Amino acid sequence: MIGMINRHAFIFCRMAFDIKRSLEKRFPWEHVNTSVILHVSFFIIIPHHLTYETVFLLGSKLHFGMAKIKTNVNRASALPVRFTLDEWHVNNQFRYRCSEAQQELSDRRLAEAALACESAKEIVKANKEETDHRLLEKLNDIEFRKAELLRVRKDCVLEIDALSVYKERLANVLKSVKRNALVICEKCLAARERRLGIDLVYDDVEKNLLKEHDAIKKAGSLLGRVLQETCEQIRKLKATLYHLDRDLENKESNLRIDRRNVTLKETDCTRSVCRSTSCFDKSVALNEWELQTNTNIIDANKEGNSAKQLRCYVDTIIKKTIDDLDKQKNDTNEAFRQRIEETREAKTKLELQHSEIIKQVAAMSNNIANLKKTIADKEGYMALAYARLNYRCQRPGMECTQDFVEANLVKEIHELRNVAANLQRTLCEAEGSLRYLLKTQVQLEEDINVKTNTLKLDEVECATLRQSIDYRAY
């Protein structure tokens, strides 16, 4: 504003000097006898209804327009001042020359005003064209940054969806491991605790079941940690997506405003808008604006890369975990198979032995019966020999001799006693053997029952349970 005032003041001062030079050329000062001073006032009206008065004093002896003439006339004299004819002519000539000077000055001012209007028009047009060009550049810049934000937002949304799928996969694998495999493994361990007798042994099946139980628990802990990392990465991606959406919303508002600014004309706005500068203090530096968008894009790319790495890590962890658990499951199943075969083989052998023992018991029972019958038969022969010997003792006198018959009877009785004793001993041994056979039979039956119980637990219960163990990567 001050610069504009000074510029107008300078212009009108030049006008005053031009008037002075023109008057001096047209009118010689020495022809005027009266001493006068020229007081010229120029009133300048500039924008905002401010008035600036430029005063220029011409040390001369002239009088024109609004100039005030100060004469050295004696104020005390009451007589009117008389002028000469020359002074009259000079005054008229001065008036004519002043009029011509004012006309020339007016023509010059008109030309200068036209030139100033043309210059102002060109300046305004150039400024508007420059502003329009800058607005178009800004629109292109915003469109480019908006496209970049949309691209990274699309990638961010895709990563969120992909991680959500991976989160569901991890949850399913964890559920399969903890609620299925771990429970089945614990049931198998609890079932094998119901084995009986000698079969309650710490065998390879027990070792593999305990190893599998430990592997399942470790796999569950690992999958749980990876699931937490996946949830945290999804949270970070959603936070990044929130900032991207806010930035895109602001960019869209900025585009809408600047597009409206591009279509605006000078006739569309009121003059009161010119005095509104409320937004100037709220403006953000261009580097801060660029830094915010660049930061959002960099953060989105960073989180997207982290999500991709996490998905690769999840794939690796799931595959390795499933492979390890499958291998351990196969090892445990193989241990079960071998143990079942061993138990079935032992049971088969016991059953064969049991059948042989039954046959032996039957044979021994028949043998004992035969021995008893033989002993009974031998008792008849013993009674016969004794009866004959007793009858021969009833012979009279010299007839009661120790002849060969008596000797043979004595010998027969003696041999029959030995045979009876031998048969009795054999019978006792047979009965003892029968008792041991029966005891062995009972023991074999108990062992067979133990093996049958073990087979039922391992082959029926545990094997059936383990068929539902299914490790899948989902």
UniProtKB/TrEMBL annotation:
Keywords linked to the UniProt accession: Cell projection, Cilium, Coiled coil, Cytoplasm, Cytoskeleton, Flagellum
Organism (species): Cardiocondyla obscurior
UniProt-listed InterPro entries: Tektin-like, Tektins
Compartment(s): Cytoplasm, Cytoskeleton, Cilium axoneme; Cytoplasm, Cytoskeleton, Flagellum axoneme
Name of protein: Tektin
Pfam families: Tektin (PF03148)
Gene Ontology cellular component annotations, sorted alphabetically: axoneme; microtubule cytoskeleton; nucleus
Family from the record: Belongs to the tektin family.
Biological process annotations from GO: cilium assembly; cilium movement involved in cell motility
Coiled-coil residue spans: 333-360
Primary role: Microtubule inner protein (MIP) part of the dynein-decorated doublet microtubules (DMTs) in cilia and flagellar axoneme. Forms filamentous polymers in the walls of ciliary and flagellar microtubules.
